[in-house]
Amino acid sequence: MTAAPTLDAGTVRRLPKAVLHDHLDGGLRPATLVELAEAAGHPLPHTDPAGLGAWYVEAASSGDLVRYIATFEHTLAVMQTREGLLRIAEEYVLDLAADGVVYAEVRYAPELHLRAGLTLAEVVETVQEGLAAGMARAAEAGTPVRVGTLLCAMRMTFLSREVAALTVAFRDAGVVGFDIAGAEDGFPPSDHLAAFDHLHRENMPVTIHAGEAFGVPSIWEAVQLCGAQRIGHGVRITDDIAGTKPGPLASWVRDHRIALEICPTSNVQTGAAASIAEHPITLLLDLGFRVTLNTDNRLVSGTSMTREMSLLVNEAGWTLDHLRTVTVNALKSAFIPFPERNALISDVVLPGYAAAGFSGAPTA
């Protein structure tokens, strides 16, 4: 990495950003959650938006992935109606645009939004409508952002085949890929081989949550049995690295450019990493893995892409070169057509980093 200018918060905020791993139900505005919960009669731990935001960060910082996931009870409670989903999806996009994000993939599980009578297809149609409204408003404001959708199946239930079919059905309406999510330990991705077989037959991209709460076996199944092109989190790939020497699986992931969707703050909260300074994201980047930087859940982690980047600059010594590399990596591994990826890199990201003082060479 070459020397880079000093990175203050304003410079980082202005940088063009790309995020591949961000959950819709983990990214609500606290004020919106308070308002929608009151209308729905759902009790919250706090009715003050600032207090609620602080509660989320504290509750999610237990070092336990299961408890982290449990905090979603409140956001899901207000995401059961068409009106709620439309508003949340539109605001989601506007918040990304305000953070300098130019490309994002949002993920959510349609099966978690059926309590008020919506069907799986109606949930997807509604979210896509809200995302489109947000993209239109962002473009009008001069801060365009392209958002693709990943549909998640919950690894603890048995709807993955149906969600896979839904993913294919909406591929021309903004859905760009498939994921499985939920508690990792005890629920291997190979439980959902029928879904993955269908997706592969239909040439649909796949990412899989793996290597967060469980280690190398989970990543191996995701890659070698289920054919994942990206790994959600994947931080436990370090279990297959001795010093700076990757083992067989880690080498396969690196050499085949299988992107790691790493979420530093979230990893610290769930105990997958000790701290930002000690997070293995820098080691993995230095070893040539296709590392991408992500937020995971902006409300739950009290974060943004600007904050994630700034933390790595201030606590792990990252430079503009590091930030540019993970941004380009994300776009190279995005689940959109190659010409669109290239255009975002050449027309948006590279000029944006050049304006900030980037002087390095392209990365692989």
From TrEMBL:
Alphabetical GO biological process terms: adenosine catabolic process; hypoxanthine salvage; inosine biosynthetic process; nucleotide metabolic process; purine ribonucleoside monophosphate biosynthetic process
Residues at the active site: 212
Similarity field: Belongs to the metallo-dependent hydrolases superfamily. Adenosine and AMP deaminases family. Adenosine deaminase subfamily.
UniProt protein name: Adenosine deaminase
Catalytic activity: adenosine + H2O + H(+) = inosine + NH4(+); 2'-deoxyadenosine + H2O + H(+) = 2'-deoxyinosine + NH4(+)
Gene: add
Essential cofactor(s): Zn(2+)
Residues marked Important for catalytic activity (site): 233
All copies of domain Adenosine deaminase, residue ranges: 16-348
Sites where the protein binds Zn(2+): 21, 23, 209, 296
Residues binding substrate: 23, 25, 182
Gene Ontology MF, one: 2'-deoxyadenosine deaminase activity
Cofactor note: Binds 1 zinc ion per subunit.
Enzyme Commission code(s) on record: 3.5.4.4
GO CC terms in record: cytosol
Record's function text: Catalyzes the hydrolytic deamination of adenosine and 2-deoxyadenosine.
Pfam families noted in UniProt: A_deaminase
Keywords recorded for this protein, A-Z: Hydrolase, Metal-binding, Nucleotide metabolism, Zinc
Domain of life of the source: Bacteria
Keyword Zinc attached: yes
